[in-house]
Amino acid sequence: MELSRSGTDTTETRALGMDKIVIRGGNKLEGMVRISGSKNAALPIMAATLLSSGESIIENVPDLKDVSTMAHVLRILGAQVRPEDNRLTIDTRACRYWEAPYELVRTMRASVYVLGPLIARLGRARVSLPGGCAWGPRPVDFHLRGLTRLGADVRIEHGYIVAESQGLRGAEIVFEVPSVGATANLMMAATLAKGKTVMRNVALEPEITALAEYLNGMGARITGQGSPVIEVEGVSELRAGKGVVIPDRIEAGTYIIAGLVTGGHLHLENCSASHMGGMIDQLVEAGATIRAGESSIEVQGSGRLRSVDMTTAPFPGFPTDMQAQYMALMSLASGTSVITDEVFHDRFTHVPELRRLGADIEVEGNRATVRAVDHLSGAPVMASDLRASAALVLAGLVAERQTEILRVYHIDRGYERIEVKLRLLGADIERVRAEM
Ligand code: EPZ
Fold it and tell me: Most buried of 28, 264, 344, 403 (most Cβ within 10 A)?
């Protein structure tokens, strides 16, 4: 893994950002693909190392831009982060800074995960408010309200979250809606609070369960993960952690749809069907043939799928992170489907780009009506956010002639070597380096 030591925005990284991916569609994908570690499990676990003073080890970390960014944030806070292939060693013994600056947080919202650990371990934190993202506002009110419940003094100053505490105290926290980020942040903070914290209506995502297990390996006392109520008995200190990142269920879902949309036959290794929630049921209802093994999934594409309505929901529902990819698939199904995103109501930046490829999609509020077409035809399109970009790659795999996807840095945030993995499966795909 090549984490940019300085991590600054050099000419090189800027040029990389302007790379494009060129796909000539029409090839069926065949073969085996290994699913990488989960980005959304790795990022909070990296932040959790701040709760201890020692050398934590994290295995099966994916080689992604967001992981490099989180490593950079940890270095700014005084940690030493040593990448070695897909293993990270994070030494937090020299950590004494508590500020995560705007120029980093604006590039990755998940930087806000350092808030809970900093306030719990150092008694203070100054973290830039994450801006919005490609598809709209991403509030953090649940995070701030929860920290206040735990006894921290939290205020917003010049675009920064400023939090101070003389020592957190356990509390009862009830979430209006399940939030992955707020559940992670507050669970981390509660591990060092005095007394017991009870969190209700928490996120049930596998990444939360994985984080709780990593924290318990550090000496935390967390129960209920994977259920709507998580309890945390505070302890006085935590030891350095050691653990393996779970497979990335969204990367897996993306490759399953790649197999279906190209009519191919894929074996996904190192993935767990139990993490896929409602994803597989939805695709089987649309006519997909999917066989799940202990740690592998086989998908056989065969002709057009049925158009089936889908509504996203927190785990174990159909994940919002797969909404764009599913829309690409439904663009070529055999009827009309209605796709509703109940988690992020405006997550449709992929729609205008899919339309450029010939898709017939109308958006109204948080609902998209997809009328399947016979074929898509290649064109230059613009990546905008991580999962929208994945949807454009999927569409490009099957669109006639050539599709060019610009600004691939969005894809590199969450997909490890996507063009390498797809080329090995038979796709006619290449990354074209931007002129320096
Ligand atoms: C996490 O984001 C993921 N990111 C997102 O994946 C994912 O889309 C999202 O969970 C939903 O599954 C990471 O894990 C790094 P939320 P997060 O808090 O934590 C509202 C990707 O592509 N909300 O679960 O930011 C919020 O607006 C990324 O990998 C508040 O109102 O999402 C949304 O409607 C994109 N106030 C709902 O809760 C808050 O303080 C769920 O959001 C927090 C959230």
Answer: 403
